[in-house]
Amino acid sequence: MARKTDIPPSYYGEPRKFDPGFRGPIHNRGCTDVVCCVVFVIFILGYIALGTVAWIHGDPRKVVYPTDSHGQFCGQQGTPNANKAILFYFNILQCANPAVLINLQCPTTQLCVSKCPDRFATYLDMQYNYRYNKSYWEYYRQFCKPGFDNPRKSVAQVLRDEDCPSMIVPSRPFLQRCFPDFITRNGTLTVANKTVFKDGLGKTRSVIDLRDAANGITSLLDAKEVGMKIFEDYANSWYWILIGLVITMVVSLAFILLLRFTAGVLLWLIIFGVIAVVGYGIWHCYWEFSTLRGKPQGDGDVTISDIGFQTDFRVYLQLSQTWLIFMISLSVIEAVIIIILIFLRRRVRIAIALLKEGSRAIGYIMSTLFYPIITFVLLAICIAYWAVTAVFLASSGDAVYKVMSTPDKCVYANLTCDPETFSQTNVTKVCPGSQCTFAFYGGESLYHRYIFVLQLCNLLVFLWLVNFTIALGQCTLAGAFASYYWALRKPQDIPSCPLFSSFSRAVRYHTGSLAFGSLILAVVQMFRIVLEYLDHKLKGAHNAFARFLICCLKCCFWCLEHFIKFMNRNAYIMIAIYGKNFCTSAKDAFFLLMRNVVRVAVLDKVTDFLLFLGKVLISGSVGVLAFFFFTRKIPVIQEEVPSLNYYWVPLLTVIFGSYLIAHGFFNVYAMCVDTLFLCFCEDLERNDGSPLKPFYMSPQLHRILRREQGSKLYAAS
């Protein structure tokens, strides 16, 4: 009996011949890609050494605490600044200087203080009032250098020696720094109800100058206020958020188990459920739109551009334009879903058969549903180690001081200096008003010169470890599900503890192969990160060709990354089954998929689409329930709803968390379907269903998939 194929075998490799001794994943296997394994272990040891060196030289206090002009930490316990946790700028108007953008440092004296000033005052006013009331000096001296106690010293000498600021303005702390306390009254920007103030140098300045100096602080202060409200909402609703996520977990688990028995009914319910949910959303948006439109001279006539950015997002829900945008977006989504279903309606039945088989496999190997927890823990360790190492690397080195000059042109500007001997040099004579100010932490040693390179190495090994963790999970799950497929009598022939056995084989024999595939993907991702960095730097450039080239490269590397992910996934399945090295497994998987390219293009993508609809339905249903709960529209439990500033904070958290949980469960399911599909293709090439070469697939799967191409795939000769 011979078999005919659609594509000449020689074009995509010869199909596998029948092996009477093959009974699923090979247990007697040897180590693969040993060189890659050794390199991987060496890199891990080097990564540990890098972290150790960074922890020895680094000091996270440099990131946590602001630093004054002498490199001392504000608010650090055990120092003179222990009770001075806020950084104060002597002349914040200097922060509008272009040097700030170049040196990332404001060219003015910076001092640690216990509180920010709460009034307008100048050194001249203080000297005048000091004659009659000593308290003026007691207040002003808080913002002078420690140890200075000569209020009669002339203004010129005080400013020359940087003893005190020429002025102080009402401020409030933000990010442990004193910034002007801006308040908008009737559309006018004010500070302490004033629009102008004296700068202590004989000039009257506008509050607008302060705003320019503290560019972006107003929006940041608004963001801080919003952040505080969001934190309060989380504190009041975390319990109910947790309940919503637990409900999602239970629903996802029940959903997967029900697919084993009612895959067809549930999947059609998913399809029509998603269509109904989106349809309801369209109707609700139309109802809100028409209601707001019907109001005479109401908010419905106002557009989003009229009100601009608002921190209270409920304002936008009072606009008819907002609901019109929602309605159009949902209508487009509804149309796309319906069109896809119309063209793929015949393939849905085949996807149902794969999902039924996948549900049956998971039902026999329930432990696979909880493997994502292991992956999550390993990823959390990798992320934490990378973040801590990056912080310690960034905070390595000693304090470096540079000459900060107020004049635009100074020959000594941005050169390193020594604050102890700076007053004895001629820099202050050549560049009047220049200062020796703390700039950053660094050094001249070999280690400090290559901090940036070490950060890149930290990022590369982090990407490698993350991809290796994901690869280990894919190979482990593939081995467990392959054990199910290649059991002739199910479940009698399924080996005991298939998940643990598969994990042990992957770690013991195939660490090198998994590391090889992970390294290839990590290098491509590293190139993508570099391209994103270059694209960010070139956004303000006028070189259109350079931006076009970067855009093309980003597109190419995006496609390359997704192709490598697809090939790696299937290569890991072949490694789990046959125990061969990465290159051989990737080649075998590629040729096997090419020999079944139509099935791959249709069945795999249809299955992914249906699983995606399942995620959307679960997260959407829990989201709708959370919406009715947090907006007090469920009468039975209205009294239990916590008081919130923004109900969308816990709502979006529940929706996003629900999607991630459903994604974790369905990822296991997708891996199961991919493994069974590859095993099915292998089964068709190895066996013909005769007593000597029986099929290992279930009769239902064989009947439905064989019906798809019928005589095209098999014909008796």
UniProtKB/TrEMBL annotation:
Spans traversing the lipid bilayer: 34-56, 238-258, 265-283, 323-344, 364-388, 461-486, 507-524, 544-564, 609-630, 646-666
Membrane topology: Multi-pass membrane protein
InterPro entries named in the record: Choline_transptr-like
GO terms assigned for molecular function: antiporter activity
GO cellular component: plasma membrane
Function: Choline transporter.
Protein name: Choline transporter-like protein
